[in-house]
Amino acid sequence: MAKIKIITGSNRPGRFNPQPVAWVKSIAETVSGIEVEVLDLAEINLPFLDETLPPMMGQYTQVHTKAWSAKIGEADGFIFVTPEYNHAYPAVLKNAIDYLFTEWNYKPVAFVSYGAVVGGALAVEQLRSLASVLNMFALKEQVVIPNYWGGLNEDGEYQFTAEQGKVATEMLIKLAFWSEEMKVSRAKLS
Length: 190
Ligand SMILES: Cc1cc2nc3c(=O)[nH]c(=O)nc-3n(C[C@H](O)[C@H](O)[C@H](O)COP(=O)(O)O)c2cc1C
Known about the structure:
- This protein has 6 helices and 5 strands, in the order E-H-E-H-H-E-H-E-H-E-H.
- It is α/β, with parallel strands linked by helices.
- Strands 2-1-3-4-5 form a 5-stranded parallel sheet, sandwiched between helices.
- The longest helix has 28 residues, at 162-189.
- The protein is globular.
- The two termini are 20 Å apart.
- The chain binds flavin mononucleotide (FMN).
- Flavin mononucleotide (FMN) is lined by residues 10, 12, 15-17, 83-87, 115-116.
């Protein structure tokens, strides 16, 4: 089984983030060959990067860095679920990514984004640039949720559409495939 980590892109009180996270997790659980775990950056609560050496050297001193390294290191693929803040992805996600280096390398990543009219697409474009620096494979397929507040019911629950579910399923099947393939390729590097 390939290990897929869903990483939350928001740690804000009252955030919308848990809804798309729970939704994409439930779809991922129907895809064969993968096991999924949510890594909630609000719970993990990393401080601003506080290591003295660059992550490329892999010489971590802080307990929280070692724990984060173990979680990301064991992963075979990722789903970043991100909002868009000022046309970018949130600082909490950048900070969590910057903590590590080799742990991200040669692993695929898929995206679920949400926001106003472009549904977080600008944030995802920036994450695609970042992924290339980390030697990650960013899947073309992505789920974009524009103006999500228009799709909330009276209890504040977003009503995901069948089309969004179809796109997510196709994306996750590809993520499962590349997670397994890249695991085999990484083994050749060691
Ligand atoms: C600091 C900040 C900046 C924002 N900038 C954008 C933006 O550039 N584009 C957009 O679509 N939505 C923007 N929004 C609205 C967010 O899409 C919306 O607040 C969303 O709920 C944020 O995700 P979260 O609730 O999971 O934190 C912004 C929200 C915040 C808090």
